[in-house]
Amino acid sequence: QVQLVESGGGSVQSGGSLRLSCAASGFTYSRVSSVCMAWFRQAPGKEREGVANIDNGGGTTYADSVNDRFTVSQDTARTTLVLQMNSLKPEETAMYYCAAAYSGRYCPPLSGQHYYKYWGQGTQVTVSS
């Protein structure tokens, strides 16, 4: 059974940085090479949105709003997913979620949340002005 556990959230001032981690376990061994992992976030009163994803070949996709400030990475065993967030803005205050999907060579689009079958419980990020 796939389990995703996020950590690293907290409070930071505008312009600051945070590093989120997601510990992943339970992927079917024969299908590990088809795993896509992603970060989503949901601010109060808003819909959940995709932030970044990374496919099994290391290819990454970012939401336009975070490009050049956020970096997603993972280890080759797919056990740890990391999101480095720099130059944070108050409007990025949200619950951040780790998600995963067996998707083949490439990741599903960030706009397609329904493709991601596995989700963590989330970690809160608060950015103060």
Blueprint (SSEs and pairs):
Layout: E1 3-7, E2 10-13, E3 18-25, E4 35-42, E5 49-54, E6 60-62, E7 70-74, E8 80-85, E9 94-102, E10 118-119, E11 123-128
Parallel strand pairs: 2-11
Antiparallel strand pairs: 1-3, 3-8, 4-5, 4-9, 5-6, 7-8, 9-10, 9-11
The parts where pLDDT drops under 50 for at least 5 residues are none
What is the string of helix and strand elements? EEEEEEEEEEE
Number of strands: 11
- Strand portion, in percent? over 45%
Give a brief rundown of this model:
This protein is 0% helix and 48% strand.
3D structure, described in words:
- By secondary structure, the protein is an all-beta fold.
- It has strands spanning 3-7, 10-13, 18-25, 35-42, 49-54, 60-62, 70-74, 80-85, 94-102, 118-119, 123-128.
- The strands form two sheets. Strands 2, 4, 5, 6, 9, 10 and 11 form a seven-stranded mixed β-sheet that branches. It has a four-stranded antiparallel β-sheet with strand order 1-3-8-7, with no helix packed on it.
- A hairpin with a 6-residue loop joins strand 4 and strand 5.
- It is globular, with a radius of gyration of 14 Å.
Key terms for this structure?
48% strand, globular, 7-stranded mixed sheet, mainly beta, 4-stranded antiparallel sheet, 129 residues
